[in-house]
Amino acid sequence: MALLEIKNLHASVAGKEILSGIDLTVNTGEVHAIMGPNGSGKSTLAQVLAGRDLYQVTDGQVLYDGKDLLNMPPEERAQEGIFIAFQYPVEIPGVSNMYFLKAALNTIRKRRGLEELDAMDFLTLVKEKLALVEMDPAFLNRPVNAGFSGGEKKRNEIFQMAVLEPRLAILDETDSGLDIDALKIVANGVNQFRTRDRAMIVVTHYQRLLNYIVPDQVHVLANGRIVKSGGKDLALELDQSGYAGLEEAVTA
Amino acid sequence: MTGIEPIRQDAARRVAELGFPTTRDEDWRFTNVSRIARTHFSAAPSDLSAWGEGQLEQRLVPYEGSPRLVFINGCYSPELSSLKLARGIRATSLREANGAVEAHLARYAVYQDRAFVALNTANFEDGACIEIPKGTVVEEPIHLVFLASGGDVPVISHPRNLVVIGPHSQATVVESYIGHGANYFTNAVTEIVAGDHSVVDHYKLQEEDERSFHVATLQVQLGRETNFSTHSISLGGGLVRNDINAVLAEGTEATVNGLYLPSGSQHVDNHTVIDHARPHGASHELYKGILSGASAAVFNGKIVVRPGAQKTDAKQTNKNLVLSENATINTKPELQIHADDVRCTHGATIGQLDEEAIFYLQSRGIGKEQARDLLTYAFARDIIDRIKVEPLRARLGKIVLERLHANRN
Q1: Burial class of residue B152, CB neighbours in 10 A (0-12, 13-18, 19+)
Q2: What is the ipTM for the molecules in this complex?
Q3: Does A92 contact B366 at a Cβ distance shorter than 8 Å?
Q4: Exposed, middle or buried, A27 (CB in 10 Å: 0-12/13-18/19+)?
Q5: Which end of chain A offers a freer environment for a tag, N or C, measured as fewer CB atoms within 10 Å?
Q6: Which residue of B has its CA nearest to A161?
Q7: A2-251 belongs to which CATH class?
Q8: For chain A, what are the domain ranges?
Q9: Taking residues A165-181, what's their average pLDDT?
Q10: Order of strands, edge to edge, in the sheet holding A2-13?
């Protein structure tokens, strides 16, 4: 079943077109990797799907579970089951992880017609999820991302994903800046999340992460378009030959 | 209180000579008190008629069970007060203290060049008198509650408080100003004298009616190696001016924090003077403001380092969150440093909510309005969390959340 259908998506920032006609269908149970050089539009795609208003969609359509995604405010997208693990998670001093995540989870649960979790049930749940990403429970009382190292921020994103249990997760360069141990922890968290009724888009510059999160399909983004798609071997190929040839192929 | 009669008469003369300050006075540049100057105030009645059934009880809930002195429009109310303190601790009204503390009363808050202090000194009826003897630890906070009310005729009250903490003693004093009705003016002065090696925590929670005037001076005289903190929370009042003047001795550590949340057409002015008179003193000052509507706020933080006050460590920060385009903030640090081996830093910020943070919260399912509230509350929490008196902290947290909600609607 198609969970996400992107059709001819064009988007620009400050009048400059970044995405120039993306077509992509992601079915439940699938993991898609989107690779490409810096400036190819990978992160813009993730931000547009999240609903960041810095980007203007100038053409095209995005259907999520058959619904028009682009008309939904960001919070509604999250409530409907979309989660973005950001490349640069924002620091929020004064708001504890615990408070933030409980507010988020209960909003989402309400939307799904589930009862809100009380403090005790919530604590049980988060402790279980914390173990998944090997984080210290003391971290719950710390302000969201404030004073976190790069690796802690990335792990926090995956932890949030594990708690919020989205249907579609988009990981935006979650591997960047992670050492190999942290990378394995993150990949393990992600792999546990894979089920038949969920889907995932992994945006990455390097093939490295895909050794641990094995994709069903790999797409290469260049100059705002998908220029090549293939199976998991495409990632290995790119790792050896680089993006240069592909970019030339498009501009020629 | 006959011993201080000459002082009161002198203060009355100064009132006549000084008149009310105008915006031409540097200390009052951004706060126009002509509305006070134009109004003819009568002495406020000392009864509770302005308070409706149950209204008062509800406002006094946070002070249940603690020793408290309650004043109605500046006059002591034994009925509403509750004093269960260990022997040797004085907690009475000034009138009942009957001159016992005259050596201290009106000796610290300088009135010669301060019209409102002079006005209070000349006219006060009563106030709280707290005296903690040497080497005494008072664990419970002592609450001083000032109820004010207004009506058709403009009225004024002048609460006057004296807190004397003996050497090596410890105490917590909370001043609460609670108002109801229009057309009244609270003009308060509190003097705190902290003996050497004492630990004193002071709080002021100002919840006057938004149609009132509130002017208050806190004068703090700190001994050697004392540890003093004050938190000044301004919630109510139409036109509000708070002055805090703290004089530090050798090795004194002073924390001077504040939070102000003006909305609508409220005007809140905080002036602080931290006087490092002797060496090795440290002061930490953090004032935070959240402005909405067409409100205005002023922060003026003066730090004086006297000649010879070497090794002074002074830090001052003022942060403002401006939620509306019509709100105004004037913030000014004023450093007068007359010693060379010191560390003095200051910083002021004025900003809006972080759009990136709002989006981040939204991306996790939290609605935009709730995200804004969460971030605004987080800004205030920085001060709220520093309040050590639990019922006060809880009450303030609740009020701030209610405020955010009200601002939104």
Answers
A1: exposed
A2: 0.94
A3: no
A4: middle
A5: C
A6: B364
A7: alpha beta
A8: 2-251
A9: 91
A10: A16-27, A2-13, A56-64, A67-68
